[in-house]
Write a structure and sequence with these properties.
Layout: E1 8-13, H1 18-29, H2 47-61, E2 71-74, H3 78-89, E3 98-101, H4 118-124, H5 126-135, H6 148-165, E4 172-177, H7 179-189, H8 194-203, E5 211-217, E6 225-233, H9 235-240
Parallel strand pairs: 1-4, 2-3, 2-4
Antiparallel strand pairs: 1-5, 5-6
Helix pairs in contact: 2-3, 4-5, 6-7, 7-8
Length: about 260
């Protein structure tokens, strides 16, 4: 019987970005707009985000080569690509690891609400604030943007790709992407429903460079099912003295 999943799957949120820092400054000042000039795809890591990525890379590097990721799938957004490149440069992947950018792992698109704080949304688009409150964040789709369901739809094909092309024994896959990607992958991997995934979301924001980890459990039905081993695991950062940050991504009012 062919194995359906890789031996291990790690899903990591990118390190802290300049957008995360700008969002905090906007909220602290009570501003309606987050002051950042780059396109969301071009927002870089902050200095803290680089330190977090290095700490996580060193944690992976302490594993034996036959335990480290040997397939890396990364969001095309700069902050995710930079996180992945730092993990790789610190020895955090197996020799000869395959790295591929995958646009299906991009950040949730916020449409007309991009760069607005909650106050900005309420001031400029009160009807959208009302609709989000009524429909709920799982199903709400801002004009020009995506709902969580839209993100889940594209992630279904990502998991199909992993199952089809990266499921041989010995394959170990690392995904580097965004907070909503981590949560929506959990929704799919564990067969959760709206209430369950939103309860996980309410517990705590996914930490920058926090690790969600699945591994094959041969005792489960089928013998090759992936089992959750950790979520929002930040010990690699704490052990290295890197800051642990849980800031939502830039347009937090629409997360």
């Amino acid at each position: 019987m062919e194995q359906r999943w890789p031996d291990a799957l790690w899903i990591v949120r990118h390190g802290e970005s300049a957008g995360n820092v700008a969002r905090d400054a906007a909220y602290a000042a009570g501003l309606p707009v987050i002051d950042i000039t780059e396109r969301d795809v071009d927002v870089p890591l902050s200095a803290a985000g680089e330190a977090q990525s290095e700490a996580l890379g060193r944690w992976f590097a302490r594993m034996s080569p036959d335990q480290r990721p040997n397939v890396v799938l990364v969001s095309p957004y700069l902050r995710a690509r930079h996180t992945a490149s730092i993990i790789e440069s610190t020895g955090g992947v197996a020799p000869g690891a395959l790295t591929m950018a995958d646009e299906r792992l991009r950040e949730k698109e916020f449409g007309i609400l991009d760069r607005l704080t909650k106050l900005g949304i309420e001031q400029r688009f009160p009807e959208q604030a009302e609709a989000r409150a009524r429909v709920g964040k799982f199903y709400f789709r801002p004009p020009g943007g995506e709902s969580w369901c839209d993100v889940i739809l594209r992630l279904r094909s990502v998991l199909d790709t992993i199952s089809l092309h990266h499921s041989d024994p010995g394959k170990r896959v690392l995904i580097v992407a965004h907070q909503v990607i981590v949560l929506c992958c959990r929704y799919l991997m564990e067969g959760l429903d709206e209430a369950q995934i939103l309860a996980i979301d309410r517990e705590r924001d996914v930490a920058n460079c926090g690790v969600t980890w699945y591994a094959i459990n041969p005792t489960l039905e089928g013998g090759d099912a992936l089992q959750l081993r950790a979520h929002n695991f930040v010990a690699p950062l704490e052990e290295a003295g890197a800051p642990v940050t849980t800031r939502p991504d830039t347009p937090a009012g629409a997360k």
